[in-house]
Amino acid sequence: MTKKVIPLIDSRSFLPPSLPPTLPSILEAPTGLIADELGRPLHDLRISVTDRCNFRCVYCMPRAVFDKDYAFLPHTALLSFEEITRLASLFVAHGVHKIRLTGGEPLLRKHIETLIAMLSALKTPDGKELDLTLTTNGSLLAKKAQALKDAGLKRVTVSLDALDENIFQRMNDADFPVSEVLRGLDVAHQVGLGPIKVNMVVKRGVNDQEILPMARYFKNTPYILRFIEYMDVGASNGWKMDEVVPSAEVAQLIQTELPMQPVAANYLGETAQRWRYADGIGEIGLISSVTQAFCHDCSRARLSTEGKLYTCLFASAGHDLRALLRSECSDQEISSVIGQLWRARDDRYSELRTQNTEGLASPRKKVEMSYIGG
Ligand code: SAM
Ligand code: SF4
Ligand code: SF4
């Protein structure tokens, strides 16, 4: 009996498209210590729970592309909460100890707190709780923070690109007040969803004049502000290198008014370079994915809304784990596929792009951030 011919969609070179996708012939039990081709462990899993969003950030879902005719995924295509939890448990057995829910806007997914409760019940092989977190644009945070906390979410990261209403709107192309995002931050802090990070993507000529106001505003708050270089993710944002404000420039600008000192990373693989204010009050992070790539210790896997595994934010193809879930595959079989894919991983797009910015950035086919999750 031919039980499984698995439609693993894959255009990666290590599995030529003509090879029929099959399960590994030898099934292995996960050791929790898996490493890829470049020796990088599998520690983080980002799960996109929806490809929809109520914002249209110009760097992520430009309205001209994501318009009223855009075909978002139908509900049946989405992984169910049970499917997400089943996969998450297999990733945890391989060594994942941090799970981030993202999207699209994750708080738009109905009953997200039910999923959070299911994920927060998972334990690492040595019995520890997961670091369970979520990235949100903050628009629904004030309303949902308490339910998220009660369900077991540990903390949140909130995206906020400006304090000035007009500039905020120019970045997110939605009619939404800054004050409501700030209220979301406040409620999240009150209910204990901290430490809370605030992500600001900086796009030259659009919101770079907000760097100092944001630094001043968040300096004496419980929130850690992080400046993110505008990335060439996806194919729809029309990315150009001259719209990137390098982190070094951001640091230099802040230093003119608020002296800072660099701080050591909290852990291996931390994406942000940390800087502490010299007066001892507060710190910021700089995420330099374009000018100082950090692929060498990237331990992140990404699961798309419809259950494809991406081993890099800039991958052009994913591996269809949903097909395995919806076939007769056992946990051990799916786990072996995950192990096989991670071991074969050699992605380091940002490092290659840093070496050849103009050559790589535009022509390559890449998946959209709102689909794969940031
Ligand atoms: N909707 C949620 C939000 O905005 O926080 C979660 C999904 S969003 C794709 C995750 C993160 O990716 C956000 O902090 C967003 O600012 C960031 N992001 C999206 N497109 C980006 C780009 N082109 N360059 C850098 N960061 C980007
Ligand atoms: Fe939506 Fe987040 Fe993308 Fe902005 S960055 S369009 S809020 S998914
Ligand atoms: Fe990781 Fe790919 Fe980003 Fe490099 S480019 S840090 S490998 S996701």
Characterise this structure.
By secondary structure, the protein is of the alpha/beta class. The chain has one domain: Alpha-Beta Barrel (TIM Barrel). The chain is built from 12 helices and 12 strands. The protein has a 12-stranded mixed β-sheet. Helix 1 runs parallel beside helix 2, helix 2 packs parallel to helix 3 and helix 3 runs parallel beside helix 5. The N terminus is likely disordered. The structure holds S-adenosylmethionine (SAM) and iron/sulfur cluster (2 copies). The site of one iron/sulfur cluster has 12 residues, from helix 10.
Give keywords.
binds S-adenosylmethionine, TIM Barrel, 12-stranded mixed beta sheet, binds iron/sulfur cluster, disordered N terminus, alpha/beta, globular, 374 residues
Poorly predicted spans: 1-21
Strand order of the largest sheet: 7-8-9-6-5-4-3-2-1-10-11-12
* CATH-derived architecture: Alpha-Beta Barrel
What order do the helices and strands follow? EHEHEHEHHEHEHEEEEEEHHHHH
- Distinct compounds present: S-adenosylmethionine, iron/sulfur cluster
Instruction: Please count the helical segments.
Output: 12
Secondary-structure blueprint:
Blueprint: E1 44-48, H1 81-93, E2 98-102, H2 112-120, E3 131-136, H3 141-151, E4 155-159, H4 165-172, H5 178-191, E5 197-202, H6 211-219, E6 224-229, H7 247-257, E7 260-263, E8 273-277, E9 283-287, E10 300-303, E11 308-310, E12 319-320, H8 321-325, H9 331-343, H10 349-355, H11 357-361, H12 369-372
Parallel strand pairs: 1-2, 1-10, 2-3, 3-4, 4-5, 5-6, 6-9
Antiparallel strand pairs: 7-8, 8-9, 10-11, 11-12
Helix pairs in contact: 1-2, 1-9, 2-3, 3-5
The structure holds S-adenosylmethionine (SAM) and iron/sulfur cluster (2 copies).
